[in-house]
Amino acid sequence: AIELTQKAIPIAPALDKADYYSMLGDMYKNINEYEKAAEAYQQALTLAISNGDAAEAEKYQQRLDSLQGP
Predict the structure, then answer these.
(1) Which of 12, 15, 42, 44 would bridge with 21, disulfide CB 3.0–4.6 Å?
(2) Residue 44, exposed/middle/buried by CB under 10 A (0-12, 13-18, 19+)?
(3) Burial of 13 by CB count in 10 Å (0-12 exposed, 13-18 middle, 19+ buried)?
(4) 70 residues of the chain, pLDDT tens digit each
């Protein structure tokens, strides 16, 4: 699933790329690859901010923050 998602990102519509990065982050988090998850969430956050989508940016920031624990 990770490999397929990585292949989908470059061809995904611009407004969907952040979601793909977020899904990738979730997959990495599920297999305890926290550094890779953080990189993916950061990409999603950056894209959401550049798209002007504050709600999505907040969601991705929360996912990024969840990697750092309480």
Answers:
(1) 44
(2) buried
(3) exposed
(4) 999 999 999 999 999 999 999 999 999 999 999 999 999 999 999 999 999 999 999 999 999 999 986 5
User: How far is the CA of 14 from the CAs of 9, 11, 47, 69, 70, in angstroms?
Assistant: 9, 9, 9, 31, 33
* Amino acid occupying residue 66: S
- Count of CB atoms within 10 A of residue 41's CB? 27
Q: Residue for token digits 């989908």?
A: 8
